[in-house]
Amino acid sequence: MGITPAKKEKEKKRAKAKQEKAEKMRERRENAKKGKTLEEMMMYVDENGNLSPTPPDPKNKQEIDPSEIDLTGFHPKKEQSIKKGILTTFIEDKGYGFITDLSTKQSYFVHQNNFTEEIKKGDTVTFELEKTPKGVNACFVKKI
Fold it and tell me: How many CB atoms lie within 10 A of CB 136?
């Protein structure tokens, strides 16, 4: 039994594909880089804090006093005065409401985590103010 012409053709195609694959592999190995040099991998931080492949311009350098750097994170600033107000709105499901200052009639957001005791809508309270990223909020809320 001999090899049929169709089988010969298939074998030729397989051999050709195998040879092309070996040639591509050899070509990739020859052209492959070993890796980047240290200079190519080096990145710099520019005067705006962005990464850059080029070193920053020394003319734009600013001296910073290390004692002025705050590493403790965000601490809201509190106003020292204790205020009086009425809890005008409180949504128990959500856990927040609003206190209206009795002297200025201004309304302040309050979350139930800032209550020092159980308080209900309509109660007269004392509170302090704290500045947060979202605005001024009531804190240390106590029932009178």
Answer: 14
